[in-house]
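User: Assemble these into one structure.

Assistant: Restating your components, then the assembled model:
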Amino acid sequence: MIAKKYRFHGQKSLNETYKRGITLYEKDFSIKSLTKTRQQIPRFAVVVSKKVSKKAVIRNKIRRKIYEIIRTNLNIIKENQNLIITVFKEDVLNIEHKKLNKKITNLIKKINNQEDKTNKTI
RNA sequence: ACAGAAUACCGAUUGGUCGUAUAUUAAAAUAUAAGGAAAGUCCGGGCAACACAGGGAAGGAUAGUCGUUAACGACGACCAGGUGUGAACCUAGGGAAAGUGCCACAGAAACUAUACCGCCAUUAAUUGGUAAGGGUGAAAAGAGUGGUUUAAGAGACUACAGCUACUUAUGGUGACAUUUGUAGGAGGUAAACCCUAUCCGUUGCAAGGAAGAUGAAUUUUUAUUUAUAAAAGAAGUUUCCCGCUUUAUUAUUCAUCGUUUAAUCCGCUUGAGUUUGUAAGCAAUUACAGACCUAGAUAGAUGACCAAUGUCCUUAUCUGUAAAAAGAUUAGGAUACAGAACCCGGCUUAUAGGUAUUCUGUUAUU
RNA sequence: GGCGCCUUGGCGGAGUGGUUACGCAGAGGUCUGCAAAACCUUUUACACCGGUUCAAUUCCGGUAGGCGCCU
């Protein structure tokens, strides 16, 4: 898991990223990001709804795997970035660790490039 | 050996790298960290608020007996009925002789029956007797078998067996069992309404409490008196009525703003706790003594990756044997169900694979 | 986390202890020069598993799926 200071606290900050952030889609999951000038520590959230799977064990495993990938690749991410990853399908569990790692890191890099082009910071 | 029954239990282990939460601490570091069902939320209790948990009506739950328990719709032992060759298992198992309702279709008739065919008597048609037999149906004058009686028949009468109500005696705390006598002769359904007995106040930790700023609102009448009393109204308590509480300016309610790296803190984990031993009891369980402290998250911790071992299954080879069983090696596969959210006692449902104890039936051998 | 409710053909939607109405949709036919409308015929259902009962979609218990409310 990831440390408590890297997590979101409360609903308003989450809603802000949902409204204003940029989104990119993969087959089984999507990424939203928003960079803020006031912030000093990046924040992450992984959302796995009950529609993905009814069992709490499977949902927890998916979250933990993705959090682990983020934790090991912290150097890619900007200091003032907010990231939300939402999972749509149960198949994420069956993907190998290395493949998932590649997919997610590539997506994050893409998003960072887009943000640099548009200069969308608040 | 095969096929079963019951009860109790385990449900992976070790190492490496990188991490998460809590506690201790200045920091580093150390310690601890998910189940038998944590699940479903089906019952019961603690705890909290409302009145200290009160009265009546309505409503709900349960239903053999005795016990266990904080309590229960749970559990234990026993009784009765049913199922099974048996070990055992199942049962919402009070009342239909308080009252009401329902019993489709078929059938003559579905409940104080009054006869469709049949049998007998009598006739021109018919009418009368009869509940033995047939047919319908889930269920049919509902006490079976043998005999007597008769026009034909029938508890109409009798012998034996059996049922219901009351009753005698013995055993048992009791349900009840065995037993004595008298009387009786028309069904089912209460998981239909209902009656009887017992129990239940309502809401649920998102309960409840603490932590900002500004503004607005907080009634009327009477009496004495100039701040008290009484009455009405209002608000709260809710399935309804009664009753109760408040009528406050350091308070309550509403609105707006602020806080977003405090959307926080308390409640929150020492408890009907875990474990060892002894004693009581058939058992559920209880008593006493010793030792121990063992998760506490809140966009929600308890993990990710890698390696080895164990267990089980399958294939092949070897050993082994009359044939099996069993053992060794090689290769491949599987390793379940499932994630604390205030806390306990049960129930129900899901679960790869495995272990132990007691018992039953069949076959074979001694 | 807690509390409550629902499930009937392809879709909507009545019903109740005795084998399920109706409307729309689908298929075929009548009518028409051809269509529409109208009329006639027809296909497809009580979420699943147990219990009570002679008989259950209905009554009772459990399971599954779906929905709502409480900060």
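Helices of chain A lie at 12-20, 56-72, 97-118.
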